[in-house]
Amino acid sequence: MSTEQQSEAPAEGDEGPVASGNDTLTVTDNRTGRSYELPIEDDTIKALDLRQIKVHEEDFGMMAFDPAFTNTASCRSAITYIDGEAGILEHRGIPIEQLCEHSTFLEVSYLLVFGELPTRPQLEAWVHDVTIHTFVHEDIKKFLSGFRYDAHPMGMLLASTGALSTFYPDANKILDPIERYLATIRLIAKMPTLAAFSYRHNMGQPYVYPDNDLSYPENFLSMMFKMTETKYEPDPRLAKAIDVLFILHADHEQNCSTSAVRGVGSSDVDPYSAVAAGIAALYGRLHGGANEAVLQMLRRIESVDNIPSFLDAVKKREEKLMGFGHRVYKNYDPRARIIKSHADEVFEATEYNPLVELATELEKQALDDDFFTSRKLYPNVDFYSGIIYEALKIPPGMFTVIFAIARTAGWIAQWLEMTDDPDKKISRPRQIYTGAREANYIPLGERTGEDRISGPATRPS
Ligand code: SDX
């Protein structure tokens, strides 16, 4: 535990310490009395600069210890800006509220990838290229048919996205501008197709091929829900709602899944494999899987009368309030606010979902409770999204899949930025070793250890 001296709060009217213009950090190692000047850049110090701090010359040198990287910048990025305290989210500087009001998901994906809004000809070319790449190789269908009927669609999406790398072997030419563009287009274009095919496999229904007359969100709805009609007629209100949800989930700086894409991508693997790693990370219930977990939680609470006892269980750490809390937002997630504002439009086009009342009351009682506000736990993007997906007749297993469709734009934009980053190196953290040293091999007959079939994992009896 650091024993930092808390500096006295500046006196009334005192502006506190004034920048001296000397952008260095002086640290004194009290074990040796030696002081070190560490350069400060972008309000950070380079962790590698700590290595000079040693007690003995032969020591490895000091490292920073930051499990889960709660206070470590892994890269420089210009794609997404988040101010967690103020609840601000911007993509290439444009506030998410403006993008949801004026833009489309495909235009936002262009913005994320190329860094500026497209001109009309650029947008038309981009939309055309995505539209004509929505088909997947027919062999993917054989691949998907190997899954059990009840396989989780995230598992099928993870596997089929990784499999795409085998259909495009030139994607490993990661610095070839044409291969990079093709991989970018293919991933954005094919993710809805793979997602919808996974859903249709679960339902035991025939696959619906992409319809190039439809927009990106309309085509996704068609591939999901078209039955015997010759042409799927999407409800424009639902297509708009899905497109806004795609925009809201498109990118979120260095979250768990994006860090996975960057980490795996740093080995120079192809982008399909790197994005598959992102899907695997997003699958987790603490990350993208939270929207599905929110619905399960609301179903378990069942009635407004049960909210106080549920919140008591959360305070006793017997439950987690899924859809609440965030590593960065210590205020209301701006995306949750926008999703909530769109809920009414969706419910106009569908039947009302009674879970909305339960969720709204749960949010109210939680935000009236010091346990949550003192920990700065507010609704995040997952708290209301599941309720809307359910109103759109999308089953819970598909909620995170929809998140993955949208986040593919962010993942590929971050992958492109990472591969061009002059600081790029293969990701390989260090560790603090806590295990045994210089042990000897014990012959089998001499081992007297207890029946160690438990510990980090337990052998089923
Ligand atoms: C996403 O990173 C991103 O940008 C992610 C995302 C994106 O767009 O990519 O925004 C998408 O993943 C949103 C988050 C979805 N996950 C959930 O809704 C799951 C529930 N939330 C928690 O698991 C948690 O809030 C996290 C994982 C989101 C954040 O965890 P942190 O930053 O590690 O926070 P923490 O666990 O250190 O919590 C601080 C305190 C702790 O209390 P104390 O032990 O200090 O007393 O708050 C408590 C936690 O116990 N806490 C919760 C809680 N979240 C944190 N208590 C109850 N319910 C919760 N949901």
Structural write-up:
This protein has 461 residues and is mainly α. It has two domains: 1-65, no CATH class; 79-425, Citrate Synthase, domain 1, CATH 1.10.580. Helix content is 46%, strand content 5%. The protein is built from 17 helices and five strands. The chain has helices at residues 96-102, 105-114, 120-131, 139-145, 153-167, 177-203, 216-225, 236-248, 256-265, 271-282, 290-301, 307-315, 334-349, 355-367, 370-374, 382-391, 399-420; strands at 24-29, 34-39, 80-83, 88-91, 94-95. It has a three-stranded antiparallel sheet with strand order 3-4-5. The protein has a two-stranded antiparallel sheet with strand order 1-2. Strand 4 and strand 5 (94-95) form a beta hairpin. Helix 6 (177-203) packs antiparallel against helix 17. The longest helix has 27 residues, at 177-203. The radius of gyration is 25 Å and the shape is globular. 38% of the residues are buried. The structure holds s-citryldethia Coenzyme A.
